[in-house]
């Protein structure tokens, strides 16, 4: 783990770092906030959205006061592998900055776009060895990262105590962001896509180890109707008898101002389940 910068914040320590990932075959950047004291601390993994790096949440979400108060750490990784030898696309919603938290099986993405394995293996192993973190984690995220948090929690319930999301892509098989990414990264047989779709996973009961799922969605979000479609999460949860608390927040948009307004509620939601 190479430390790139450290800052004191809310009595704790914010570290920007980089490490080599076996899954992506590239260096991966991240930030880690640890609260005041010695630890080991339970922690939250935050997954960001399209176009983001490890820096968007770190500088804009304003989460560290609540994290210090609840004595939880927060780990925020980058959203994809990066570099000159890594495949990319000129569009903002594919390639670097748009890893979708899945393992690609199609050329030219296969060698490096392994974000599911990166988050669930390399990231967890590395941060728990390098920082005072307990092996007790939860996961949350925004938009593409909300999709990542929901799907990784349901695919790996043994790794995560709880899950929440801000304005998640609810059903990537039923929106253009998701269809574009899955067409590029995954097998053309759309049946294989179902394993990476949050609403479809909830519908078949894959969230049943979670007592509740917290989702905040702004009603002024420019992506609400075409991409995010939170009603699909609600319908799936109702079918499966899964508790899902979907809060429609009047007038909030898709920006980090929305996250900053409600992130303390998400930190408290997870801290109660990590205690
Ligand atoms: N046209 C915009 C679209 C990118 C955007 O809105 N990204 C969101 C996440 S969208 C879903 O995953 C974001 O978090 N942006 C970063 C930020 O700091 O707000 C563009 O090209 O930027």
From TrEMBL:
Catalytic activity: S-formylglutathione + H2O = formate + glutathione + H(+)
One Gene Ontology cellular component: cytosol
GO MF: carboxylic ester hydrolase activity; S-formylglutathione hydrolase activity
Hydrolase in keyword set: yes
An annotated GO BP: formaldehyde catabolic process
EC number(s) reported in the record: 3.1.2.12
Active-site residue numbers: 143 (charge relay system), 221 (charge relay system), 254 (charge relay system)
UniProt xrefs under Pfam families: Esterase (PF00756)
Alphabetized UniProt keyword annotations: Hydrolase, Serine esterase
InterPro entries from the UniProt entry: AB_hydrolase_fold, Esterase-like, S-formylglutathione_hydrol
Domain of life: Bacteria
Similarity section: Belongs to the esterase D family.
Function in brief: Serine hydrolase involved in the detoxification of formaldehyde.
Protein name in the entry: S-formylglutathione hydrolase
